[in-house]
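Lab manual, section 2.4: Encoding a predicted structure.

Procedure: take the sequence of the chain (128 residues), apply the prediction step described in section 2.3, and record the output as structure tokens. A sample record is shown.
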Amino acid sequence: MNSFPEKAFQASSQEAITPLEKEPVLGGQLRAKAVWVDEVACIGCRYCAHVATNTFLVEDTLGRSRAIRQDGDSTDLIQEAIDTCPVDCIHWVEFEELEKLKKELEMQDITPLGILPKVSRLKNRSEK
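Recorded output:
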């Protein structure tokens, strides 16, 4: 009889994990810093959102980039997105600073960038 299935019952359910060196979900190394977009300075070019698609999103209302996930992309990919920013508005910051920066951003009076309204092309064709 094959003893292979028995190995599964002998394996320890408590595997050695070092939580200080691993991200809980992705299993990668923890970053020393968090990524932050200065939305006041952002010009909405979308370069960062095209490079690091799981980290940056262009916010619909204001048309400016925003970091939506800290664990969305690799550090190298996020750094590449930072390097593509023409106005240098994306920064590495301490994780502890994020809450303060969010509150400061909420106090800003930010003008929406020139976002064109979405128009259905099918509707316009039927009117002609």
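Check your result against the sample. The chain is about 30% helix and 10% strand.
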